[in-house]
Write a structure and sequence with these properties.
Blueprint (H helix, E strand, L loop, with lengths): L1 E5 L2 E5 L2 H11 L4 H10 L1 E5 L3 E6 L6 H16 L6 H14 L13 E2 L5 E2 L4 H12 L2 E5 L6 H14 L5 E6 L15 H20 L1 H9 L3 E5 L11 E5 L7 H8 L7 E6 L13 H8 L6 E5 L9 H18 L1
């Protein structure tokens, strides 16, 4: 039952068990409640049998909040863990365009890690990205730091290996300074390049466990290598990920893309705002967007600061840098 005392207030009556579910949804010390109030610009009051939602200004629709809670409650009933940042993203996307991307049929887990953690998309952009990887033979994902570009690609690769959709995984990174500027470091080339590949190793340890990764690595089922090692090879029946692709030259990008063999899937990720190439060198990731946009079987996905899944300050930092660079160019 719903009664409106005025246009800006909505009152909802519930059974006692429903009220208990709502209280649980609002979280300890009503943290989730405060997040919802902040995003929608409303005040929410909960009594023993009713929920009263009041807009702080005349343009705030209290019924929209109830619609959001109706979509959120079934999701949380399944025991899915939602952080305060996750909830803010969900509420913001719903408030802006009624997007319900977190429904189970949209956001099924990609992989359960060795430590029993479910890896799943956490934004609308990430769902689009995952769908593009699954439906395309070659997918480019371009976006700022913290949007899960590489992490999700590696989770998809591990899932494909577990399902026997591919026979091996090849993870590749350019080592921009792997020439003269690393010459002073001790060790052979592999030891000098390894720090550039360390983020890939860390993610694989989490997804597979260090022991399983070591076993797969020894059997050449998983290969983590610098881009230079790809020249002259053809990779069949493989899931291939090129990370930090903004630091490839156009020639390196062409070389890499032409390694793709039969039964393989390729994902290329990069952040075009963080190019470390020497001044005057074009980025292969920038150039390829002008060469391959209309080729069937190839998809380009662009993530934004709204898809950042790190600390909330990361999103604000990205927005601040974007504004600074736009103001500087004008």
């Amino acid at each position: 039952m719903i009664t409106d005392s005025n246009q800006n207030t909505a009152e909802y009556h519930f059974e006692s068990d429903e009220i208990l579910q709502i209280k649980k949804m609002f979280g300890g010390l009503d943290k989730n409640l405060q997040t919802i109030e902040d995003v929608f610009g409303v005040e929410i009051h909960l009594s023993s049998d009713r929920l009263i939602i009041q807009g702080k200004t005349t343009d705030k629709d209290p019924h929209q909040v109830n619609d959001f809670l109706d979509e959120l409650l079934p999701f949380l009933k399944d025991g899915t863990e939602v952080t305060e940042d996750d909830l803010r993203k969900m509420a913001t996307s719903f408030q802006e365009n009624q997007d319900v991307w977190w429904r189970k049929d949209h956001s099924q887990p990609i992989l359960t890690t060795a430590f029993h953690k479910s890896i799943r998309p956490r934004t609308a952009g990430q769902i689009q990205y995952i769908r593009a990887v699954r439906e395309s033979e070659l997918c480019f994902c371009i976006g700022p730091a913290g949007t899960g570009k590489t992490y999700l690609a590696m989770a998809l690769a591990c899932a494909a290996l577990q399902k026997k959709e591919v026979s091996r995984i090849v993870l590749v990174r350019p080592a921009v300074e792997a020439g003269e500027s690393l010459g002073y470091l001790p060790g052979d080339l592999k030891e000098k390049i390894e720090p550039y590949l360390r983020p890939l190793y860390d993610a694989l340890y989490e997804m597979l466990s260090p022991e399983r990764f070591q076993k797969y690595s020894e059997k050449d089922i998983i290969e983590v290598a610098p881009l230079a090692y790809m020249r002259g090879r053809t990779l069949n029946d493989s899931f291939i990920v090129l990370d930090e692709a903004q630091n490839t030259t156009p020639e390196q990008m062409k070389m890499f893309l032409t390694r793709m063999g039969f039964g393989s899937k390729v994902v290329v990720t990069g952040d075009v705002t963080q190019i470390d190439l020497p001044s005057g060198k074009d980025s292969g990731l920038m150039v390829v967007q002008r060469i391959l946009p209309d080729v069937a079987g190839i998809t380009f996905v662009h993530l934004t600061e709204k898809d950042v899944v790190r600390h909330r300050l990361v999103q604000k930092i990205i927005q601040a840098y974007d504004k600074f660079e736009k103001d500087r160019d004008t």
